[in-house]
Every structure is written in C-alpha cells, then in structure tokens.
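Thread: "does anyone have the structure for this chain?"

Original post by V.I.:
We have the sequence but no experimental structure in hand. Need at least a predicted one for the grant figures.
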Amino acid sequence: MGLDVRKLMPSFGAEVIGLNLSEGVSDAVLAEVKTLWAEHQLLLFRDQSLEEPDAVAFSRLLGDLEIHVRKEYLSPENPEILYVSNMRVDGKPIGILSDTEVGWHYDQIYLPRPAVGSLLYAVTIPNNGGQTSFANMSAAYESLSDRIKGQLDGRTAVQSYENFNAQYSVPTNSDQKQRTPDIEQPIIRTHPISGRKALYICPGMTTQIVGIDGDESRALLDYLFEWSVKPEFVYTHSWAHGDALLWDNAATMHRREPFDGNEERLMKRTTILPPEEFAVPF
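Reply from O.Q.:
Generated one for you, tokens below.
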C-alpha cells in the first residue's frame, strides 16, 4: 500500500500524510519518498517531532550532507544543521538571515557541487508572516518560447554568494569569501535524478550571462526572473509547528516572506548533495 499523498497545487508540491520521519523509514517507503520528491519537487510532512539527530538521519538517506560555510550558525552538536533564525543568545544571533527581507534564491548555487535538496523544519514560528514561497523552475523553463530556450541553450551564468550577502546584509569573513568565489553554472540544469530540465538562475546570486554583453544579459535575466515567479509557478507555504518541508534544490528556488522582527522564528535546515559525479558541469 502506497503513501497517502495530497497535492499542494496543480503544478507541483505534495503533502505526504501520516509518515513519522523520526521513526525511520523502510527501504520501500524511502524509495517511494524519493519517487514522490522527484515527481512533485516539494514534499510537506506535517506534525513532526524531529530532534536534530532525526533530521540528520532522514536527510542522510537522501544523499551526502553539506556542512554550510557559515559555521557560526551551525548546530553545535549536529553541524549538518544550519539555523535560520532571528533569535539571539547572550546578545549574539544564533541563525542566518535574521528577520530582514530574503529574496528568491537557490541554496548553494554558488558551489561546485550545488545542493540537490534541502529539508527545513519549523521549531519556532511567528504569529503572522514568515511564509516560504517556492517557484517551480522546471515548469518555468518548459513554458518558455523555443526562441528563448535557444538563447539559453548551452550557456552559463555567474553565481555570486557575495552578491547575495551584499543585498541582504549578511556579511562574510575572509575565510568564507575564499571558500565561495564566484562560479559559473549552466543556466539550464538537468536534474541529476529525474533528467528534467529547469532554469538554474536566481535574482539573489545570478549576476551575468557569460558571453552576452552587460545590458543584454541584464535584460534577459530580468525577463527570466519575472517569468519564473508567475503565479502559476509559485506555491507559498504558511508554516505550522511541526512542519517539515523537503524541496528539490535542482528545480525550485525559494524566498522567505516578511514577518515582524519582534517575534521569534527558528528553522533548522539540512542541505542534501547530489552524487559526486554531478559536480559542475552538469
């Protein structure tokens, strides 16, 4: 008997009902979760009671885990987990991305082996705001005209973590800058598991299309950014306590919606890597 699944919206996203991630999963259930993940790109698991080792253990079933470059925001006991939070302890922030605006981005698009997935778990949520929106970049690519697809075919773009940090006031130290130099990635990413093509660009980090002059590159990127967040491609998730979201980081970009900075928000995230052979180029 298969897992009970409910679609979140017609184009992508699904809720997997009744699966307790902290209890472990059988090989058969894991295979079904992987199939659903590839099919729907975004999976919601409600009413979870995940301790940090539980989140790490489940995520590791899906691939190797990235240790984020922002070491100051990692869990002290489980460094595979990144804290996304505006909370402070002894006057110091415990998490990244605080409560300022955070625009559309892919996790770790700026690395030679960019993420294929992320699992985000809600620990403390504000009463209002703080939703996470996701854009289906496979559907956005597939809906482009043949002319635009032809312009993009075979091209790469520059991805800059420093550009993201400058936009959203997340300063990096010299070691972090050395570990995250600007990098070229394909504009069209072929998914390492499903083989489906998706746009692989985001306003926060994509700065230039290689081989196209600045003004033309900027105009084309702006068009693609606007195109990819049309309402039919976007799902916005309103968090509840115990929600865990697993998303496809090769085919969806995301952003956090605003919330009142006087309220606390704490999310815990793991980042899942593709097999070694899928480091760039794809």
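V.I.: this helps a lot. The domain at 4-275 is CATH 3.60.130.10 (Double-stranded beta-helix).
O.Q.: and The chain has a mean pLDDT of 92.
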